[in-house]
Amino acid sequence: MRALEDELFPSTPGKVKIERAGGAMNRQLHRCFASTSTMFLWALFLVAMTASYLSFQSFVDTSSKYFQASWGGLHWERQIRASAAPRRPPGSSPNAGISVLVTGAAGFVGAHCSLALRKRGDGVVGIDNFNAYYDPSLKKARKSLLASHGVYVVDGDINDARLLAKLFDVVPFTHVLHLAAQAGVRYAMENPSSYVHSNVAGLVTLLEACKSADPQPALVWASSSSVYGLNDAVPFSESHRTDRPASLYAATKKAGEEITHSYNHIYGLSVTGLRFFTVYGPWGRPDMAYFSFTRNILQGKPITVYRGKDHVDLARDFTYIDDIVRGCLGSLDTAGRSTGSGGKKRGPAPYRIFNLGNTSPVTVPTLVAILEKHLRVKARKHVVEMPGNGDVPFTHANISLARHHLGYKPTTNLDAGLKKFVKWYLSYYGYTRGSSKNL
Ligand SMILES: NC(=O)c1ccc[n+]([C@@H]2O[C@H](COP(=O)([O-])OP(=O)(O)OC[C@H]3O[C@@H](n4cnc5c(N)ncnc54)[C@H](O)[C@@H]3O)[C@@H](O)[C@H]2O)c1
């Protein structure tokens, strides 16, 4: 063994030793190379097997992330039909009997709208992919709340064309309220493709399903005030330019407005786009400032307050969720019919865009002061200049168009709205006044 090792790994440069070993050595080397190449082939085979296993796993992971196979079957269809069935007394309103597919139903605005529709007797089916952009347990809790009111939320992705086709096959939805999206401005710098996946590709897949459905539903969907981008003429009006987005999020929402316009034009789809202005309230989104400020203030952690150039405070036209819900339901109720069927246009259909804001911007330091008052805790503020991450310094809505066409009239100011939010937050996260639980 020792000799063989010496011969295979000579202590002096190889040629001398190999020559010394003569014919026997050649045979051994040949055997050795033969077994090395066999081993190499086996290794190659194993690497190939591992690679194909891993790529299969990643395919399964990706498809299960986007396309949950947890739908289908008779029981599932019965649940969908029951959830979609309107329960308004016949003749109680001109729109008695609408049945709405709500995308993003486990989200903040989606859950509130689904509940409001159900409470007035409309049929609602939700769809949501429960992604982990923020704590999915909050989305699951909203789903449970909806289930307790008879609203079924399908666990699925709007990019899943088969699932959408099946839903339209089972239910002739009169309306689609499209709220599913990758929201948030800053996250686009971390995960840009999630914006393309949900806000562009997902939108087109949904529009394809809508245009092919017979009857075609009317579509109401969430654009965003962020489309005003670098605009500085205030208040923002629907007639202002929207071709200078300041973030990828804004760009995908602007793209959505153009994409929906083309489906309206080619297929006769009735489209209403709603530009929401900073929506807040109970069951809200943990990534938004009012929510994360509340969490940090209660936990005694500092909050980062951004300030614009020249020490100008940032301001937002904060809009309370109940006002937004009224705007969404008003849009559904006034949406004209789609004119096409089976993918063919039969005449022009309405294409509308409305601002849904509050018309009274509030600065971020004022927001913090209101939170401090309702939480009865002082915030530890860390004031820094706003980084160039896509946020705009202020928003302010002109809502005359929505007032005229939808009867939209916001009624909750930031103080009253945050009071309700804080009450919900403390109860949802198990705080009791005066106790240090969770602090
Ligand atoms: N909240 C605001 O201040 C605000 C402002 C302007 C616009 N908007 C828009 O309003 C809509 C609702 O916003 P929100 O605050 O309720 O956000 P949210 O994140 O709470 O809700 C969106 C929901 O859509 C789901 N979703 C995302 N991609 C999906 C996909 N591909 N398939 C299925 N489900 C998917 C998410 O899981 C989430 O539950 C969004 O379109 C958002 O862009 C919101």
Automatic annotation (TrEMBL):
Main localization category: Golgi
Lipid bilayer topology: Multi-pass membrane protein
GO molecular function terms noted in the UniProt entry: UDP-glucuronate 4-epimerase activity
Top EC category: isomerase
E.C. code: 5.1.3.6
Catalytic activity: UDP-alpha-D-glucuronate = UDP-alpha-D-galacturonate
Keyword set includes rRNA-binding: no
Top-level taxon in the UniProt lineage: Eukaryota
GO cellular component, one term: Golgi cisterna membrane
SUPFAM superfamilies the UniProt entry points to: NAD(P)-binding Rossmann-fold domains (SSF51735)
Pfam families found in the cross-reference section: Epimerase
Keywords of the record: Isomerase, Membrane, NAD, Transmembrane, Transmembrane helix
Span of domain NAD-dependent epimerase/dehydratase: 100-334
Transmembrane segments: 32-56
Subcellular localization: Golgi apparatus, Golgi stack membrane
Record-stated family: Belongs to the NAD(P)-dependent epimerase/dehydratase family.
Protein name (record): UDP-glucuronate 4-epimerase
